[in-house]
Structures are given as C-alpha cells and as structure tokens.
Write a structure and sequence with these properties.
Layout (H helix, E strand, L loop, with lengths): L4 E2 L3 E4 L3 H11 L14 H18 L3 E6 L8 E7 L7 E7 L9 H15 L5 E7 L3 H9 L3 E2 L5 E2 L11 E8 L3
Helix pairs in contact: 1-2
The structure holds coenzyme A.
Coenzyme A binds next to strand 5, helix 3 and helix 4.
Length: 179
Amino acid sequence: MATTLDTPRLILRSWIDSDVEAWADMNADPRVMEFFVESTPLQRSREQATRMRDDLERNGYGWWVIERRDAPGFAGVAVLDVVRWDGFEPRHEIGWRLPVHAWGQGFATEAARAVMQYAFDVLQWPEIIAITSRLNVRSMHVMERLGMVRDFGGDLEHPRIPVGHRLRPHVLYRKYRAS
Ligand SMILES: CC(C)(COP(=O)(O)OP(=O)(O)OC[C@H]1O[C@@H](n2cnc3c(N)ncnc32)[C@H](O)[C@@H]1OP(=O)(O)O)[C@@H](O)C(=O)NCCC(=O)NCCS
C-alpha cells in the first residue's frame, strides 16, 4: 500500500486513472524532455504509468504523483528508486519530473524534500544520490536546494546514453542521513 505524503502545498499520492494521460502529455512536451535522449511514445508512457502504480503499491516507494492542494490533478512526479546498472553498485536515487505549468513555484523541491525525508526516516536509506545531465541546470538547482552536495569525483558517463552524445556526461549529488 503506497504511503501518501503531505507537504504544506502538495499531496504526494498513488496513481489514479486520470493521471495516465497527463503523464503521457508531459512526456510528449519537448521542454520537459530536453535532457532525455529519447522522447517517450504515448503507448510507452501509458505502460509506464501502470507499472509505476503497481511498483509504488507493492514497494511502498517509487514514483509518487504530485498534486497541488489548490489545483487538483496531476502536477508531476517525485521519485525514489534503486538504480541497478551493470558495473555499478545499486544506489538509492531521488528524482523529479513536472509539467511546465508547475515549474518555477518551488513544487519540485517541496515534493522532493518530502520523499527524501521518507527515505531517510521510514525506509532508513543511509544515503541518497541524484544524477542528471551536466547540462540540466534546473535539476542541479533542485539538488542544491535539497542540501545535496555535488561529488565531483562521481561525475559519470551515463551507461545507457550513446558514447559522444551531448547528454552523456552526468553529474552526481549526494546526501547522507543525519546520524
Ligand atoms: C527540474 C525541474 C523539476 C525543476 O523545476 P523548478 O520549478 O525549476 O524547481 P523548483 O520546484 O525547485 O522551483 C524553483 C523555482 O521556483 C521559484 N519559486 C516561486 N515561488 C516559490 C515558492 N513559494 N517556494 C519556493 N520556490 C518558489 C524559485 O524562485 C525558483 O525559481 P528560479 O528557478 O527562477 O530560481 C523541472 O524543470 C522539470 O521537471 N524538468 C524536466 C524534467 C527533468 O529534467 N527532470 C530531472 C531529470 S534528472
């Protein structure tokens, strides 16, 4: 059963049917997908939404839907995930993706703060990382607002992005649970 998280302006909740098209619309917006290698076809977005709902319900963490208290409906996602890439240790990761109408209001940081607190306090994750393309300054600013610290030694070439692609170089930020 997915836990609902509350913040002053937001509710982070599980998926409902009406989120699926909003998720697909967001993924079809080139402004949102500027730092992703591929756009997501509609059918794949729909399949992802079903899988994310199931994973969130089963695991108790994953891709939460962000909803504004003052404007019901889909306002993006905040994510806790375990990344497992060949050649890398599994890592606990945080992430976010919001439709453009929800940018510039502090919602991504507010939502991410809530899921980060959940990861540290409830899931007892000892450390959280965030990665993004070196070009994704907006996302790096969210990481910094969360108090995450860039690990310059952790810069990486994303293993799933083709060699030579401008989005392949990634930065890595970390935050440790306060002991
Ligand atoms: C990355 C992304 C989530 C950042 O969104 P964002 O709206 O810039 O981030 P925040 O929610 O933290 O909002 C911060 C902005 O809101 C402003 N703001 C306005 N009202 C605010 C309030 N009440 N409280 C806090 N900030 C507020 C801040 O001043 C800041 O503005 P600035 O960027 O001009 O300095 C968004 O651009 C996005 O979804 N991008 C596409 C997907 C993506 O790249 N995801 C990351 C992949 S790794």
